[in-house]
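Risk register update: the risk that structure generation would not scale has been downgraded. Supporting records follow, first protein first.
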Amino acid sequence: MKRAKRTDWKTEPLPLKRAAVRLDKAFSQNEMDIIRRGLIPAQMEDKWFVFWEHDTLFFHRSWTGLCIYVAHFDCSGDSCRMVGAEVNREPAQYEGISDQQDAEMISYLVDVLLLHRNTQFPNDELSPQNRALMNWSMVGRAMLGEHPNDD
């Protein structure tokens, strides 16, 4: 399977206006092999381009190429731990303002987009319709269990 690299898609750098968030999630070597492949969008309903570079996972919106998240890993031995991330805080590019919600979203994106896990969407929106719309805007067809790498 092809491994995503920066040059596979249009990308914009993370803007200077950013926040640092703490993460603490461990992954096995097998999971890391999958995570390092990243994700190249195959159709309009694929919302992210994700690639691995130098113990760092970059998340770019597929339509615009805007960098939203940059997750950092500490890898040693047979395991890796996602230890922190930089989050886009440029209001013209990304409206998120909650470090906690962004930390949860990064974990969710890794689980759903890369590891193909059926995971609860991390949002406190009470309306099922609004939750579904928000989930669709974040992960597109992956919320239905369909992934570009499955094509």
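Supporting record for the second protein:
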Amino acid sequence: MIKVGAAVVRDVRGRVLIARRKVDEHYQWTELEGLWEFPGGKLEPGETFENCVIRELEEELALLVNPTGILLELDAGTDVKPVHIAFVAATAKAETSLVLRVHSDAQWVEPSQLCEYSFCPADEQFLQCYDIL
């Protein structure tokens, strides 16, 4: 099973960071291309979910975050590609310009606006299970 840390990051104004997956013909999960997600990535050996989101957000978006705890864990994916995702609450350490290294877009949005975006299934499941407002 693949273990993933997904960051639910808020800025000083209370907005939430979401990122859009790139469309890439070499991507292994093409069904997720172009959908929005809470950014993060795969755990490395010996890494906690909190440390994972710190590393991944710095690598993918040049964003420094301070994790504050796990909001929800859930199993997703398919029988062929099972995934365990921990959604980690975090705050942005400073207002900085995001650098898109693996996403096609990233936006800070009001929590009430999240329903306007098409999310990956696991992120959609998180939004249905957890009241982010």
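Residues 60 and 102 are 6 Å apart (CA to CA). On this basis the risk owner (M.S.) recommends closing the item.
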